[in-house]
Amino acid sequence: MTGPAEHPSRALALHKALRAIWSAPPGLGAFSAVNHTALGRRFVIAAMVFFAIGGLLAMLIRTQLASAASPFMDADQYAQIFTMHGTIMMFLFAIPMLEGMAIYVLPKMLGARDMAFPRLTAYGFWCYVFGGTMLIVAMLAGLAPDAGWFMYTPLSSSAHSPGINADVWLLGVTLVEISAMTAAIEILVTVLKVRAPGMSLDRMPILAWYMLVVGAMMLVGFPPLILGSILLEVERAFGLPFFDPARGGDPLLWQHLFWLFGHPEVYIIFLPAAGVISTIVPVFAGRPLVGYRAVVAAVIALAFLSFGLWVHHMYTVGIPHLSLGFFSAASALVAVPTAIQIFAWLATLSHGRPRLSIPMLYVFGFFFIFVLGGLTGVMLAMVPFDLQAHDTHFVVAHLHYVLIGGFVFPMIAAAYYWFPHATGRLPVRGLSAAAFWLTFAGFNLAFLPMHLTGLLGMPRRVYAYPPEAGWETLNLVSSVGAFVMAIGLGLVAIDFMILRRFGRAYRRDPWRAPTLEWAMPTPAQSYNFASLPHVDRRADDVDASAIGNHLAAGRGYLGFVRNGWMETLGVETLSGRIEQIIVLPRQTYLPLLTAMATTAFFVAMLAKAYWALPLAVVAVVVLFLLWTRESGFRRDMGPLAVGHGEAAPVHIESAAPPSLRAMKFTLIANATFFGSLLFGGLFLWVSAPNWPPPTVPQLSFVFLTAPVAVLALAWIAGHRSVGVAGSGGMLWPVLCAGAHGAAAILFMFAALSLGADRTSHALSAVVFVVLVYAAVQSVIGVLFGLYAVYRIAGGFVSATRNLDLRIGAPWHAYTAGAGVAALVYVMLLIELAGGSP
Amino acid sequence: MIGRDRDRYVLLIAAGFTIWLTGLAVLYGVNAIGCKLDWQAVTILQTVSLQRTVVVAIFAAHVAALVLFFILVRKNWGRAGAAGLDRPERFVKRITEIGLLAALASTVFAFFGVFWLTQCAAT
Question: Which residues are paired to A130 by β-bridges?
């Protein structure tokens, strides 16, 4: 164990020792990287590549619309182009960009050495790249999705989209969403557990609060869309009629599931950008953020409100007046917490001594554009106005004002702000300022007239319009503006390339920023800090330069190398007290291989090679199990020194290890998925035509009662396994796995013997899917049970080292609860439909 | 196992708007179910429909829940006194209180239409 380095040469030795452990090998070894700095950069670069592709498609759209009845594209090509533009910008650019930013910067700001689950970061990255590639390859092959980025049924159903275009969207986007789910769990656990000692909740940097809220939003925002995508793919591939009104389905179910995700998505995109603004403005105003507590409360309120207004995308579908009132009022309400943040930023600027720099140019651009977008948002929240403007170019203008103003401008500000951190080079004003003004002017030239185009009645998604409509001049202006903006963004890209090579060199903390990411050598080292800081004040009010020297000398926590471990500290969420030493996994190709196997599953679905699906599933499971080879110890470690006379247990021996928290978050996402499914069935009963069905499914008494008994046994056995950990006994884990296995078999038998064709009506289809869901939970329960047996046999479990068993216990409990809920729900739905179970 | 978990306090910061969101979901769902089952045709006290009564009751229950929760938070944490709470706890308490009050205002603003808006007619 190398000790704290009091002498420069010893400090250098410490840096070398840390770098040897934390850095990925050169060459092809880069594919084994799990480090957050490397992966954060890769996320950002990949997102920028997709942004460039999406931007190119936008230019094609504007070329087409520049004149009436343009021969540039036909309707089919145009449909693919505008669908891919929206899909790329939302799923392949915006979400991954914010993930990349968070992955790169969060651990550094929190005073940690990495995210909580580095391999999960890598797995998410590869799923994102493979999913995105799937969509782009399909587009190049002329098979791109063409039903709009929100894929409304029945247009996207097999009757109206018979090719694989819609499948490409459903499968590609779902593959990409895996990365969003992994990022959500990563971000949540990292912010809650992986911080510097002393960094209590009230001392967290404001960006951490934003990302904590965004992580929670992603956790419950994405499952409804994943469910919708699965249901639509199952309908298209196997004929189960969830969205087909002729068979008891309803296209509106898709809209609900999509917008349950889609509207929070806007805030999932906006809030990280707002977090960037809340980080940058105080730096350049030279004073702390005004109203830290009010901003935290506003962000939490905004997150919840954003989940309560998804129906404002559906005002015109025939919603009762009372419900319209709820959603209209909620839509207007979001202006309040948004305004609180805007006033906090303005107050910070007015109370400080602002410095105008390149990042601040984009911050001012954000203010101007986003506030205008917010105002038109309040207009669209009002039902009477929306009924007039719905599906016109006014909405296109509004959403671009919100998304480009509220996300792209802050992200460019973030890029200029953290560019020195990533590269060691400072921006130079000349080209950077010119690029900003071109982008800003081009944007407003493109989208301000579009409000008028929309108010004059031009609908969205049309590839041509009659010359006599009077829209041609405005469209031409918009197209010119779009090209000016594209030139501006091109200059931004060129600027970054030039700065990378010729930017000004600097010493530490060039912006005089008071956050911990600047208390490290730049460009950032793979291990971030040679030793970890102790935080005794708000973590966005620290003297980064002074702390940096102290930490580089190894005088903080964990200022040594032990057993070749990659160590960082875990803290109590509320108080920030040291709780555990988190031993992170080393570099490995397993995330890449697992993502390849996962992609194989989706490609097999796309190719309708259903025989290959079980092979892909087995490959994924086996590869995930291989991840566990590296984790765990065969002996109790007890408390280990962390420096400054303090000691802490390794995470496996801690009461609240990150992985246990991650499991609970996984179950919340899982429960959201299940809840959305239950909502879907009830929604169809309430709203869909052709109910009740001619034939109602039946469930025998055995299938209604037996699963309850075996699920109860699985739950008890899972719980008892933890209680007897260390005794070496395998009875309870074996019983647990066996009970789950029996439950899975019973659920599958029940699903396959409903007595009604599951393709004939939505009721049978919903009942079938609910039972299959319960079976799948139990199959995963079997895996957890067998995993416990494997770990006990391998000597990884003791009374103290019982995490391998504790991690399964919540799953067993959830599966039991969800299984019983599934049975009750199925009985209820059959009863409501006029049958008797 | 070594360590302790005081972290469930953190969940309280989401309490106010969780109640608000629950109110929205329940009101939206129950109103739709009421329309399906024609609760409007069932009158209570000869003038008010069952449909109206149910949504007003749900609205009142959520307002009451928020008020009660706020009182409980003030009372329980207040008993400890400012000196009895450490700094992070005081922070969580304050955010919880702000959240509850904001959610109460949001509940009244967003759901007040339960008293007069038509319930099943659509535009």
Answer: none
* A192 touching B (Cβ < 8 Å): yes
Cα A431 to Cα A457: distance, rounded to the nearest angstrom:
39
Q: Which residue, A174, A179, A183, is CA-closest to A216? A: A183
Q: What is the distance between the alpha carbons of residues A657 and A654, in angstroms, rounded to a whole number?
A: 6
- Token representation of residue A448: 């301000």
Residue A462, Cα to own-chain centre: how many angstroms? 31
For residues A744 and A733, what is the distance between their CA atoms, to the nearest angstrom?
A: 16
Backbone region of residue A745 per phi and psi (left: phi > 0; alpha: psi in -120 to 50; beta: other values): alpha
Interface of B with A in 6-25 (CB under 8 A): 6-7, 9-10, 13-14, 17-18, 20-21, 24
Confidence of residue B32 (pLDDT cuts 50, 70, 90): very high
Inter-helix orientation angle A429-455/A472-502, to 10°: 160
Q: Do B14 and A387 touch (CB under 8 A)?
A: no
Give the Cα separation of A772 and A10 in Å (integer).
60
ipTM: 0.94
Half-sphere exposure in the Cβ direction for B91 (13 Å, CA): 18
The DSSP code sequence of A96-148 is HHHHHHHHHHHHHHTT-SS-S-HHHHHHHHHHHHHHHHHHHHHHHTT----ST
Q: What is the pLDDT of residue B4?
A: 46
User: Which residues 775-834 of A have a C-beta within 8 angstroms of B?
Assistant: 800, 802
Q: Cβ contacts of residue B112 below 8 Å, gap of 6+?
A: A329, B59
d(CA A42, CA A232): 32
In single-letter form, the type of residue at position A443 comes to F
Token output for A745: 């078999």
Task: Check residue A267 and report its DSSP letter.
Answer: H
First to last CA, chain A: 66
- The whole-angstrom distance between B45's CA and the closest CA on chain A is 22
User: Does B5 contact A at CB distance below 8 Å?
Assistant: yes
Instruction: For residue A779, give the amino acid letter.
Output: V
Q: Look at A322 and B119 and tell me if their CB atoms are within 8 Å.
A: yes
3-state secondary structure of B49: strand
| Residue A1 pLDDT | 44
Q: What are phi and psi of A301, to 5 degrees?
A: -60, -45
Residue identified by tokens 């840390």 is A18
| H or E element at residue A647 | strand A646-648
Decide: A182 and A115 in contact? Cβ < 8 Å. no
The DSSP annotation for A197-224 comes to: TT--GGGS-HHHHHHHHHHHHHHHHHHH
Three-state SS sequence of A396-421: HHHHHHHHHHHHHHHHHHHHHHHHHH
Note the Cα A563 to chain centre separation in Å.
Answer: 34
Residue at token pair 């047996």: A789
> Could you check whether the bond before residue A154 is cis, i.e. omega within 30 degrees of 0?
yes
CB atoms within 10 A of CB B123: 13
Residue found by looking up tokens 């067993």 in the block = A812
Distance CA A740, CA A709 (A): 11
C-alpha A650 chain-centroid distance: 29
Report the candidate in A696, A666, A676 with the shortest Cα–Cα distance to residue A770.
Answer: A676
Q: Is the dihedral of CA A273, A489, A375, B114 positive or negative?
A: negative
B119 closest CB neighbour out of A311, A320, A579: A320
Residue numbers in chain A where pLDDT is lower than 70: 1-8, 728, 835-837
In this prediction, residue B8 carries a pLDDT of 75
pLDDT of residue A7: 61
Q: Is residue A644 a contact partner of residue A791, using CB atoms and an 8 Å limit?
A: no
Query: What is the distance in angstroms between the Cα of A343 and the nearest Cα belonging to chain B?
Result: 17
Q: What is the pLDDT of residue B123?
A: 65
Residue A256 is predicted with a pLDDT of 96
Q: Is A704 on the interface with B (CB under 8 A)?
A: no
